[in-house]
Specification:
single chain; 159 residues; Rossmann fold; 16% strand
Amino acid sequence: MKHKGVFCDTSFFIRLLDAKDPLHYNARGYFKYFAENDYALLISTIAIAEYCVGGSLQELPLRNLQIIPFNLDHAQRTGEFARIIFAKKGELYIKERKIIPNDTKLFAQADSEKNADFFISSDSESIKIYTLLRKESNPKFQFIDLSTPYNETFGILAI
């Protein structure tokens, strides 16, 4: 059993599976790094549903993923996170969209799962939500911005 893991947002898989996406190379680098370093790749049933809006389930690398269903503990933590976000939403300055409840749910799942050390996403708006949560609640996972290559995130010399 893997003891360290990374919770993967929908945006990670969109970039990983689209060779024409500007962040595809970064997504491939992270995917390879995580596999080589024995990280469990966690995906929520919520992220799967989001992915299936524009893609199909069969496109996802399911044999490499641990699927995490949304459960009662996740729901309770979501409520705690949402309370903070709604109380402080004026500090977020989200321009392109309203606060997406799924961001809060995914963060709550990552925070509740014992082996979720990281949450990876290319969603610049969700970074703002995470930053606010970090100030107010201190989630146990670290946010990885997919726009930063894996070697920079983990301090590895690029070869």
